[in-house]
Amino acid sequence: MGFSGNTTQEKLNVSLKSLISGLCLAFSMPPWGWWPLAFVSFLFLDQLLAGVTQHKRRFLAGFSFGVGWLFPSTFWMIALTVPGYIIQGILFSAFVGFAALLIPRGAWRWLALPAAFVIIEALRYRWPFGGVPLATLAMSQSRAPLGHTVRILGPLFLSALVVVTGVVLSSLWERRWRFASWTGISLIALWAVAFVVPNGSPTGETTVAIVQGGGEQGTRAIDTDEREVFERHLNASSNVVTPVDLVLWPEDVVNVKQPLSDTPEYLELQVLARQLDSWLIAGIFERVSITENANASIAFSPDGAEIDRYDKVRLVPFGEYVPLRGFIKHFAPSYLPVRDTKPGVGEPNLIVEIDGEKVNLGIAISWEIFFEDRARSAISGGGEILLNPTNGSSYWLTILQSQQVASSRLRAMETGRWVLQAAPTGFSAIIDPNGDVVERSSISETRVLHATVDRRSGNTLATKAGPLPMILLSGGAIIGANVFARRRN
After folding, report:
1. Nearest one of 61, 29, 57 to 45, comparing CA atoms
2. Residues 231-268: pLDDT tens digits?
3. In this predicted model, what pLDDT tens digit does every residue of 152-199 receive, in sequence order?
4. What is the CATH number of the domain that holds 257?
5. Structural domain span for residue 190
6. Which of 47, 100, 298, 434 is deepest in the core (most CB within 10 A)?
7. Domain count within the chain
8. Phi, psi of 354 (to 5 degrees)
């Protein structure tokens, strides 16, 4: 499987085979979900890199792998902006290309390859524009046996294990039986350890209802009657089976062109909370100035009072605000929001009182569920349940929606919390701390999901440690692999 020639045909062969390897990784992601392909993809990539010596060609191999991986699995982004979709695909593919340059030849590459992809993933969680963690390696394993290892050291740890599994396959291909055996045994041991590490503990029960108003999928906000969306959720809320402690509405289904408190919708939400005799968490989108909007979730008490509010901190680039607006507007003016959304500054927690007891609800609004740090902050702040009100109704296909469910599953396993995901047109879901989807809606249907969930306390290793240990370990592994490889040569 190695390549060392200099002809144009051989260069094309390397690019094509790298591209196919990347496609294997793409199809391991939701919505396709053929998770064993993730391991196969790294078997192929490792064997390709083992036989490529020239730096330009190694970069090309990595870049082609990234193209095959990222362009199909982030295809939904064209609904935001075509230039943004192309730019992020090229940029993150270049990350893989540069990472390929850091991986030495010989056996030490098996240490550097997982470490390099951890660094890639860590970068994507943080840069550019605050991070764009789409189609991550961890997502590919959200429904797989390896997935629950995410509670050990988070998604970067799971990403490393995905690549390590590919390395085991590659070493078997080369008949390095001893290395493959010991590495495989280590993988199995880590998989077993994940069953016994701390995972939080129940402190009580809460009855919940998630309201999905329904409606056509793939409809942009600018082409939608905001009042109609609101009324769908009002009407759907009549199907809530009471008594219930908590009713969760999706993100920004209350969309008004002025401060919410000055609108009829505000009064109607108060009335609804009183009618349900329940806490109502409503996703609102309001205009706060000529140039800014706000995206928030507001907690109304059973007596209709506004008690708490969380404003979304991590915003969608090109969707809720426009980076480099002066440049981008020349390419995609019809895709741009007229006003940028103002980021929040508060902690990701809503405090409510149920049966005389204070209950801390962690919250990650929509895009924020893709970022492990938002959920970790919510749990560190005392979150007992994790809410994910979201809105993916404007995106066609189900790539984004499926990947969001996968991210919610990962956040549930990482934090040891129930996750409640509410979407106006799907998917809404109730997910237990083991990452199992207890109930999920279909696309476009009107539905109310009911469940009794545990409130939980305590931290997992992932929420205690955060990403820094994996970043430092991976950086050291890359340096060490290169140093030892050069000494051997």
Report:
1. 61
2. 999 999 999 999 999 999 999 999 999 999 999 999 99
3. 999 999 999 999 999 999 999 999 999 999 999 999 999 999 999 999
4. 3.60.110.10
5. 8-197+466-488
6. 100
7. 2
8. -120, 125
